[in-house]
Design a protein that fits this description.
The chain is mainly α. Helices cover 50% and strands 9% of the residues. The chain has six helices and three strands; from the N terminus they run αββααβααα.
């Protein structure tokens, strides 16, 4: 006698997905790791890079240089710092809503990276100088130029966020859905399995 998997189990769900509980645990775990890693690297940057010339690595492909950014990339929106925490709070709310039907591990990884990156910079906006909700983000990595003229100076939170967004785009392009199904594959299979699909094949 076989029994159906319970809703809270970590077994695969019908349609190739996984349980919502497991997907949410993966999302939260990745977000926490990304957040803690970002806070640690910012702490180390403040200890070791403050009042120091840029550190050249990999033959000049990477520089470590401490900057404090009140805006977004290339200091865009520097005069409206307060708007970035509001945007981040909206992103966090959107991810929480997405988690309600999340049954895909790849999507859990993607959303976890986005959430961890967003929270990492939100902590700076809320708690760092010059004040609450207008704090400057600590950045320390620059590519090909020590002063961010080729590519904006960034931090680990930015890297996690961008990686999560890129992964989300790839998942969308390949038809992978957040509930674990896959467009163009599951839909076609389901149609063939239904009586209506059988009737359509017979008429053809």
């Amino acid at each position: 006698m076989t029994t159906a998997p319970t809703a809270g189990s970590g077994t695969a769900e019908p349609g190739g997905g996984t349980s919502r509980r497991r997907a949410v645990v993966v999302l939260a775990s990745i977000a926490l790791v990304a957040l803690l890693a970002d806070l640690l690297t910012k702490h180390l940057a403040l200890l070791n890079l403050d009042d120091r010339p840029p550190v050249r690595l990999l033959g000049g492909a990477v520089y470590l240089t401490l900057t404090r950014n009140s805006g977004a990339a290339w200091s865009i929106g520097a005069d409206h710092t307060w708007i970035f925490p509001l945007i981040t709070i909206g992103v966090v709310g959107w991810i929480a809503w997405m988690a309600l039907r999340l049954r895909s591990l790849p999507w859990a990884i993607s959303l976890g990276l986005v959430l961890g990156g967003a929270l990492g910079n939100l902590v700076d906006r809320i708690f760092r100088a010059p004040g609450h909700f207008v704090g400057h983000v600590v950045d320390m990595v620059s590519l090909f130029d020590p002063y961010g003229r080729v590519w904006p100076v960034f931090n680990l939170a930015d890297s996690a966020l961008v990686s999560g967004v890129v992964l989300a785009v790839l998942l969308e392009l390949t038809g992978r859905q957040r509930d674990g199904s896959r467009l163009g594959k599951d839909d076609g299979r389901d149609t063939e399995a239904t009586p209506a699909g059988t009737e359509q094949r017979e008429r053809a």
